[in-house]
């Protein structure tokens, strides 16, 4: 078991946004977190990374909880937010050094890995650049490089496909495959359902703060045989929206 969310009720104030959510992400598995705007994807992620505290239910990561052992829990997670969060006063090199320090990585090994990742994302000649000089996609790539430097057990990636060029999407999917093969779990929220259909091992479909359905694409298609052939069709049918509307 990597991530286990059980009966999570949560949100931002007294009124819960998430109403009794349960799902798991197993080691070596890429799970797609799918849902309309406002369905509760970011709220779920905010609970997993510890920005929000559950009102009810539990979140465990390899047996650790945030409440019992915050350091051990957080050390297992690498998070790539939808909107890149970088420090304006730090260079790319300093961002990488900070990640290495924060995760207690061996500098020699980590720099070897960093150079591979920087080359993949064509940032290898930009180590002295500040975030102000990067485009939005380049900032996203910096966050990807920092996340994949770590030996995290769980990667959480919030909508990676909208700001990245097709080559970077391809390279990111290859990296995900690599960390999955090493036993990490990956939870990815996205609206790009055709890519998700091909890449994800399982799906959790959220609707109005509830898990509407979950399973592999084959399982979901078998459960809703009349809903359509693609994840996009099934999702539109399940949320009650037709293509003609
Ligand atoms: N900071 C906040 N304070 C109060 N309510 C919030 C806050 N952020 C989100 N919400 C509410 O929580 C609900 C779920 O929002 P959430 O951001 O989790 O959706 P989402 O599935 O990530 O949507 P999107 O696809 O637009 O990113 C919405 O009703 C939203 O209005």
TrEMBL record:
It comes from the Bacteria. The keyword ATP-binding applies. InterPro entries: AAA+_ATPase, ABC_transporter-like_ATP-bd, ABC_transporter-like_CS, ABC_Transporter_VariousFunc, P-loop_NTPase. GO terms for molecular function: ATP binding. CDD domains: ABC_DR_subfamily_A. Residues 3-233 form the ABC transporter domain. PROSITE patterns: ABC_TRANSPORTER_1 (PS00211), ABC_TRANSPORTER_2 (PS50893). Keywords: ATP-binding, Nucleotide-binding, Transport. The keyword ATP-binding applies. PANTHER family: ABC TRANSPORTER ATP-BINDING PROTEIN ALBC-RELATED (PTHR42939), ABC-TYPE TRANSPORTER ATP-BINDING PROTEIN ECSA (PTHR42939:SF5). This is ABC transporter ATP-binding protein. It comes from Lactiplantibacillus modestisalitolerans. The lineage of its organism: Bacteria, Bacillati, Bacillota, Bacilli, Lactobacillales.
